Amino acid sequence: MKELTHYINGEHVKGTSGRFADVYNPAIGEVTAKTPLASAAEIDLAVQAAEAAQPAWAAVNPQRRARVLMKMVDLLHRDMDKLAEALSSEHGKTLPDAKGDVIRGLEVVEYCIGAPELLKGEYTDGAGPGIDMYSMRQPLGVTAGITPFNFPAMIPMWMFAPAIAAGNAFILKPSERDPSVPLMLAELFEEAGLPKGILQVVNGDKEAVDAIIAHETIQSIGFVGSTPIAEYIYGNGCAAGKRVQCFGGAKNHAIIMPDADMDNVVDALIGAGYGAAGERCMAISVAVPVGQETADRLIEALIPRVESLKVGPYTAGDDVDLGPVITAEAKARINALVDSGVEQGAKLVVDGRGFKLQGYENGFFVGPSLFDNVTTDMEIYKQEIFGPVLSTVRTDTYEEAIGHVMDHQYGNGTAIFTRDGDTARDFASRINVGMVGINVPIPVPLAYHTFGGWKKSAFGDLNQHGPDAFKFYTRTKTVTSRWPSGAKEGAEFSIPTMK
């Protein structure tokens, strides 16, 4: 049995807590490795190394720090296949999707190469008699991130790339379910020239999370995961005096107007609803057709497409549409929610619960399901399923449709499909959701814009990547300077004013 490690101060370090978590290959349902679960003492060991290394890294000018990121981009391209293979074997997503996971993280690393520009402060000449004022963006010090299982490459890079580019040290606590890729990323960054101790990976569970929250040296925490845990980390992290950004659950709606291109809609919903087995926080899990005729056409077009989806292991080739879900518990939860939808009166037009794959009977595969006639009081509508399940909520009017989106507790992403520009502009302007797609099913912004939801999907005032990331990982210092010429006549005891 392979035993994984932590990565502390440039070395692979065996766990000392005596506690481990099983790492599965979800396609075969077998344990392939075990990963150590860190104690508070192991978190402290990583923090000490980070605290010792960070001042020298912060003193490196931003252009030279950016050169390390340039090299990291080259190494990510070099090892793309290796990273994707490791990712797929522990997560279960297809190889093309695994490469996409790496690439969307790589794009943020590319953006952060612009750190010299993004870290520039402001300057005012002659703010007063002989007075100049300027502001500086300076690193926080030791920062930390807690990342989910569904994007083990992308989301860590979304966090540590801007943190490191800004001159911080970063401690990553990845998901214990698929920890190999984060360890590989730490190795690659040091190969790119990053000093030891600046990026460290400490595997763990709630004990490690609580240790990160409590540690006085750690200045900020980033988190992506479920809303209850996001609320827990945000509340306790803020109470501990840290800067915190937490991203939680989602229930993303796609409104389909009567004038929409139905072929485009169906293609979009198939990819956004069932890609990665629905284990995406930006998955479209609710289709909201406007008008009964629109709904009938949508369901008629979706059924054969959903039924023809190819489910299988990543080793079966690039034509596999979706793989297994992450654990047996996740599979059971998804099937239970589908059961509840049937019990509460929704119409299950494609039933994926009994899916079996020959030769992979022990794998965590869930067949794709499609519901019609879902109502907003049903559990399958209220909860984030995080599985290959698409629910259809029929509406009669546009106002009714946007009301469903606006009334839902989550506000991560949403989309509208229409040919009418006025409708699209109205939707984008009024909707209370953080990321909006117009004829785009998964509106994940590119690296030079920011990613973040509203309502119960996000906690904190700054988003991930883009300009917000550099604001989050730095603090502003403002300097007022005066260089008087000649002899000073004496002290001034009144408050300075502009004369």
Provide the domain count. Answer: 2
Shape: globular
Q: Tell me the fraction of residues in β-strands, as a range.
A: 15-25%
Query: What is the arithmetic mean of pLDDT?
Result: 96
- Number-wise, the strands total 23
CATH architecture of the largest domain: 3-Layer(aba) Sandwich
Sheet of most strands: 7 strands, mixed
- Uncertain stretches: none
Under CATH, the homologous superfamily of the largest domain reads: Aldehyde Dehydrogenase, Chain A, domain 1
Secondary structure class reads: alpha/beta
Q: Give the radius of gyration.
A: 25 Å
Spatially, the strands of the biggest sheet line up as 15-16-17-14-13-19-20
What is the percent of helical residues?
25-40%
Task: Describe the protein's architecture and organization.
The protein is α/β, with parallel strands linked by helices. It has 2 domains: 2-248 and 457-479, 3-Layer(aba) Sandwich (Aldehyde Dehydrogenase, Chain A, domain 1); 252-438, Aldehyde Dehydrogenase, Chain A, domain 2 (3-Layer(aba) Sandwich). It is 38% helix and 22% strand. The chain is built from 16 helices and 23 strands. The chain has helices at residues 40-59, 62-78, 80-91, 95-112, 115-118, 154-165, 180-191, 206-214, 227-239, 262-274, 292-307, 328-343, 379-382, 398-407, 421-430, 467-472, and strands at residues 2-3, 6-8, 11-13, 20-25, 30-36, 122-128, 131-139, 142-146, 169-173, 199-201, 218-224, 243-247, 252-256, 284-289, 347-350, 369-372, 389-392, 410-411, 413-417, 435-438, 454-455, 458-459, 474-482. Strands 15-16-17-14-13-19-20 form a 7-stranded mixed beta sheet, sandwiched between helices. It has a 6-stranded mixed beta sheet with strand order 10-9-8-11-12-22, with helices on both faces. The protein has a 3-stranded mixed beta sheet with strand order 1-5-4, covered by helices on one side. α4 (95-112) packs parallel to α6. The mean pLDDT is 96.
